[in-house]
Amino acid sequence: MITHDLRILADAMLDKKANNVVGIDLRKLGTAITDFFVVCDAESTTKVSAIAENIVDKLRTELGRKPLRMQGLENGFWVILDYGDFVAHVFLTQYREFYALESLWADAPRKEYKDRKVSKKTSEK
To answer: What's 42's domain CATH number?
Structure first.
């Protein structure tokens, strides 16, 4: 069931044109933080905020879930949405590069998420 929730989260990011959406499975590392991180970035604080707001909206409407904690919405550099068993990180691109969160968890299995929507031109061929 968690994979379904993570896919909804990734889709919420991708709906607002997030870059480099990556899931990181922390379960085997024995961390008490959470089971999964889903990380993405965007080129502007406006896009970071839009992505974060879309995550909150989609997870509430589609899964009935609200974040336990939220940080960073006021500045749009790095928004953290904590849902308990997973945490969404929405970075401004240069902040993602600077903090290199994924490198801290380099031993963890990861999954790249791509947009599942098929364009009209592709489906007409």
So the answer is: 3.30.460.10
Instruction: Indicate the helix (H) or strand (E) that contains 83.
Output: none
- Residue 68 within any structural domain of the chain: yes
Output the average pLDDT for the chain. Answer: 92
- CA distances, 23 to each of 88, 102, 120 (Å): 9, 10, 28
Rg of the chain in Å (alpha carbons): 14
Number of domains in the chain: 1
User: Which residue in 49, 40, 56 sits closest to 8, CA to CA?
Assistant: 56
Model-level pTM? 0.90
Distance CA(111)–CA(38), nearest Å, equals: 9
- Per-residue pLDDT at 50: 98
| Domain-located, residue 71 | yes
